[in-house]
Amino acid sequence: MTPGQGRVRGGGAEDDDVGESASSGAVPFHLALEPEERTVLVSGPNTGGKTVLLKAVGLIVALTQSGVIPPVGPATRLPVFAALFADIGDRQSIQESLSTFSAHVAAIKDVLEGADARSLVLLDELGTGTDPAEGAALAGSVLRALTARGATTIATTHLGSLKELAEREPGIVNGSLQFDAATLTPTFRFTKGIPGRSYGLAIARRLGVDPAVLEEAERTLPADLRALETTLAQLEVRIQEVERREEELAARQAGLDVEAGGLERVRAELAARDEDVRRREKELERTAKRAQRAYLLEARVEVEKAIALARDAQREREARRLVEEAIAATKARDDTPLVLPDLPAGPVSPGDRVRIASLGIEGQLETVQGSEATVLVRGRRVRVPAATLSPVH
Which residue of 40, 85, 181, 211 has the smallest Cβ count within 10 Å? Predict the structure, then answer.
């Protein structure tokens, strides 16, 4: 709304109209005025919600300027008005000798005397209650005057000639509340920029008025009005088709969003599984490295054991070689065969001087392990069966 932009939300059926209301819930209104737009002329059938729109705008402005949070949508912008004028409902009075039209004219007089660029003006059923031609002429002049002053004005009307005013006068824009032509029920959806049809004859036909009378009424309609009604009917069909397609697209988009959410969940699950697999791979790699290290350590121990055994075997072979060389040297000095006397065997202990009967040499007993003994012979250790040892006295 100017100055600035605003959104107005409300819904329901007009208080002074008779007809079907919305099946359930409230239908939100969206009203936004551009800086150059000063007047909104709302048209449409009875029970369409025009009066409710006026009351919603007035109450929201009054609540806002009273410090009460209004029932509006997010990002709503509302102007601040210095004055609020409203002519809504029937103010006829027998006591004051005011007819319906006279009461409207008195209210319009007050509006024209006080409204300026900082005023909000709400006019319901402008131009009714008198001759349609004169009423339309008076309503058009009032709207042009308020628009020229810069007052923010919202007016409702059923007069067809006023619907063409927005095409000729800058600052005035049409608006309508949609009506389902198939079921003749209001949808309470506000549309700016398009005038609405009154559906007077259609509603009369639905209520059972004589068809002949209705046919006669249709024939007597002015040609320009019939052409306007035909154009508006075609436009409504196109608008409804566009809205239907938009709803289908919105439903498809919602389905795609749901599918996208599902895909995102699947992607997150796959990412979590991939992370779990990588974590397990690292754990397995660490476990394998630990097992490999343990295996290498164990193999090293075994290799060291094998090396130690090889060294012992090498030492044993070296001892045998030395013994054999000593025997050979002894034989070389004495051709007499070496005869080792059989000495009585006896118990031996580490440190004793012993004779190795199988080799015929002497040495010092170092250790005895089971059936084997280690004897130190000329600085060399020789491993021989313990049973072949005898003490040297």
Answer: 211
Neighbours of 234 (CB within 10 A): 10
Are the C-beta atoms of residues 179 and 31 closer than 8 Å to each other? Answer: no
pLDDT tens column, 100-153: 777 788 889 999 999 999 999 999 988 887 777 888 899 899 999 999 999 999
The answer to whether the CB of 170 falls within 8 A of the CB of 35 is no
Contact 361, 340 (CB under 8 A): no
CATH match for 1-220 among 3.30.70.20, 3.40.640.10, 2.60.40.10, 3.40.50.300: 3.40.50.300
Nearest to 191 by CA among 236, 146, 139, 155: 236
Indicate yes or no: pTM above 0.70: no
Alpha helices in the chain (DSSP H): 50-65, 100-114, 132-149, 160-163, 165-168, 200-206, 211-220, 223-333
Cβ proximity of 368 and 350 under 8 Å: yes
Say whether 299 sits in a helix, a strand or coil: helix
Specify the CATH number of the domain 348-393: 2.30.30.30
